[in-house]
Amino acid sequence: EAQVTQNPRYLITVTGKKLTVTCSQNMNHEYMSWYRQDPGLGLRQIYYSMNVEVTDKGDVPEGYKVSRKEKRNFPLILESPSPNQTSLYFCASSQETSGRYEQYFGPGTRLTVT
Amino acid sequence: GENVEQHPSTLSVQEGDSAVIKCTYSDSASNYFPWYKQELGKGPQLIIDIRSNVGEKKDQRIAVTLNKTAKHFSLHITETQPEDSAVYFCAALFTGGGNKLTFGTGTQLKVEL
C-alpha cells in the first residue's frame, strides 16, 4: 500500500529539548516536503527536497532543519523547540504522473512545546 | 511568490444542498489547481484537480471551475452528504517551477442532517 508514515503521532516536549520527527514514504517519490498546519493559516511549507541531498527552504523555515540522506526518508529536526512551534505537522511526498502532481500526506504529528 | 485566498472559512449546508468554495490566486504563471479534503485526524487527500487549459472538470458529485482571466477557481459539491463534512483546501502550482503547492487557508464544511 502506497503511504507516507510519520512518527511520533503525538509529542509533548519542553522548550529547548531537541527533537526529530521522522517521515518515510514507500512510493520512490523524488519530491518530499514538510508542512505545518495552524488554525486560520492553512498549510504552510517548512522545507522541501527535490531529491537525495537536495533540500531547500519553504515559506516558514525558521527554527527547523531537515536532511535527505535516503530517498525514502525526510526527517524534520527542531534543534531548540519553542512554544510558537506548537502545531500540527505533515510530511508529504509527490511525483508528477500524467500531468497530475498529487501530494500524498502522512497522518500528521501533533506537537506541543511547553 | 504565489498567494492563494480561500472563502468561506466555514460553510454549513443541509444534506442534499450544494456547497461552493471559492479561491483566488495571484501568480498568473500558476497552471495546476488541486483540491484536497482533510477528514478529522487525517492528512489532506487529493479529490480533484484542474489544469489551466481546462475550464471545468467533473467527477461524480464534485466539480471544479477555473477562470484564468480572473485568477479564480471554485469547488462545487452537489447533493451533499454527511460524509462530505471535512476541511477542504485549494492549492495552486506552477508546473515549470517544481512541485511546490501553495495552499489556501481551508474551509470547514459541515453537512447537517
Protein described:
- The complex is a heterodimer of chains A (114) and B (113).
- Chain A is mainly beta.
- Chain A has strands at 4-7, 10-13, 19-25, 31-38, 42-51, 54-57, 65-66, 76-78, 87-94, 103-105, 109-113.
- Chain A has no helices and 11 strands.
- In chain B, a hairpin with a 4-residue loop joins strand 7 (62-67) and strand 8 (72-77).
- Helix content of chain B is 0%, strand content 54%.
- Chain B is built from no helices and 11 strands.
- Chain B has strands at 4-7, 10-14, 19-25, 32-38, 45-51, 56-59, 62-67, 72-77, 86-92, 102-103, 107-112.
- In chain B, the strands form 2 sheets. In chain B, strands 2, 4, 5, 9, 10 and 11 form a 6-stranded mixed sheet that branches. A 5-stranded antiparallel sheet of chain B has the order 1-3-8-7-6, with no helix packed on it.
- Chain B is mostly beta strands and 113 residues long.
- Chains A and B meet through strand 4, strand 5 and strand 9 of A and strand 4 and strand 5 of B.
Helix content of chain B: under 10%
Largest sheet of chain A: 7 strands, mixed
Most extensive interface, chain pair and sizes: A-B, 28 and 25 residues
Give unreliable regions of chain A as ranges: none
Question: Mind describing the biggest β-sheet of chain B?
Answer: 6 strands, mixed
Radius of gyration of chain B: 14 Å
What is the CA-atom radius of gyration of chain A, in angstroms? 13 Å
Identify the notable features of this structure and list them briefly.
heterodimer; A: 114 residues; mainly beta; seven-stranded mixed beta sheet; four-stranded antiparallel beta sheet; 11 strands; globular; B: 113 residues; six-stranded mixed beta sheet; five-stranded antiparallel beta sheet; 0% helix
